[in-house]
Amino acid sequence: MGLLTFKGGIHPDDGKRFSKDQAVKPLLPKGDMVYPLSQHIGAPANPVVKKGDHVLKGQLIADAGGFVSAPVYSSVSGTVKGLEQRFNPTGTKVECIVIENDGEYSEAEYEPVKPLDELSREEILEMIARAGIVGMGGAGFPTRVKLSPKEPDKIDYIIANCAECEPYITADYRRMLENTKDLVSGMRVVLSLFPNAKGIFAVEDNKKDCIEKLNQVVANEPRMDVKALMTKYPQGAERQLIYAVTKRAINSSMLPADAGCIVDNVETLIAIHNAVINGRPLTERVVTVSGDAVETPGNFRVLLGTNHRELIEAAGGFKTEPEKLISGGPMMGFAMVTLDAPVTKTSSSILAFKEDVVAKNPETACINCGRCVEVCPSRIIPSRLADYARRQDEESFVAMNGLECVECGSCSYVCPAKRQLKQAIGGMRKIALANKRKK
């Protein structure tokens, strides 16, 4: 049987050799901890602590600001220094709670948990919501909302996104190898919410050791299966993943639930296990530190709120001063303006590169080669959409299906003219979506 995949896509150097064989190391922070109130899609969290308060690890410091929101918990014990404007990893200054870490890590008492089979659907959803869990693959959509479709009986597939198709990032890879049982337990929790669904672990075939280990652990799980995906970027994009696994297509006007699917990231499922089975809120995640400017690339279990500068220090510092810092992957991540930004719920990696290759390759005129069309997973025409975007022609942009772009960057990657296609399309797409919501 052939490997599961989608039309289009690219095969960049995956860069995973730098860190894939490095086991996850725990990292205890030294400096102040910074917690942005908005680490998710939706309303920012509301602070419930004030300057001078002493807090414990695992204590609520900001409550959800609405249904589409998520609470924030302290990952250390210490004293609240106040509410300040600080940079987040994407380079935006946001409201943050700053806590002086006392280095003791005294932990709050948690409520005892009941066995999974004694919990009702609403109890499970409430535990996930109260733990502050969001999509930890980058989108940051509150998980409780995602797991609350209008018709849960019509959900056929719970897909664990184990593709990790972004180059250089190996955090999910290490999680699959080192925390396999926790990952499967998280899937078991989600399946308990959807009686008619089957759980699928969708793994790219360059991770054969993960496929083998997952198959061993789910051998006695009749509602779970492991599927091998073709190694190709952007195999882990939600729409492409759903199509590869189920052959069901969705567009920008649909949710995965409309196609009978729910997709959760590896780190998210492990967080669900910790919340429902262990009764623990979300206070940590695994982050990859990699790139050719890093002395000793690796994977680290990091407390949320830790400064990125401490992450770089844990990886041995820089071999040479990098020209480019990226939060996330090189294809869909964000250029960082400073290392003095905290690790958040959606921080999958920090990458440091000796050269800024994009800046050293200026744009030239489009030669109408069609390569961007060949690789586009959304089957649209990136070169034409970028032209509409640069002319601010929103009407033509929308008419030519510009909203279907998933902003994967495949078009920019293959463009021989080095045109910033993704950036132009992404900017206009945000404007068009905002105007659509207004209407």
CATH third-tier fold name of the domain at 116-276: Rossmann fold
Which structural class do you get from the secondary structure elements?
Answer: alpha/beta
**Fraction of residues in helix:** 25-40%
Task: Tell me the number of strands.
Answer: 17
Count the helices. How many?
A: 13
CATH superfamily descriptor of the domain at 116-276:
NADH-ubiquinone oxidoreductase 51kDa subunit
Oligomer: single chain
Mean pLDDT: 96
Spatial strand sequence of the major β-sheet:
1-14-13-17-15-16
Supply the CATH class of the domain at 116-276: Alpha Beta
The secondary-structure element order is: EEEEEEEEHHEHHEHEHEHEEHEEEHHHHH
Radius of gyration: 21 Å
Beta-strand content = 15-25%
Summarize the structure in words.
Among the domains are: 116-276, Rossmann fold (3-Layer(aba) Sandwich), CATH 3.40.50.11540; 371-438, no CATH class. The protein has 13 helices and 17 strands. The protein has helices at 121-130, 143-146, 171-178, 180-191, 208-217, 238-246, 266-276, 308-314, 371-375, 382-390, 394-399, 410-414, 421-438, and strands at residues 25-27, 33-36, 46-47, 54-55, 60-63, 72-73, 78-87, 93-101, 157-162, 198-204, 224-229, 261-265, 284-290, 298-303, 324-327, 334-335, 349-353. It has 439 residues and is α/β, with parallel strands linked by helices. It has a six-stranded mixed β-sheet, sandwiched between helices.
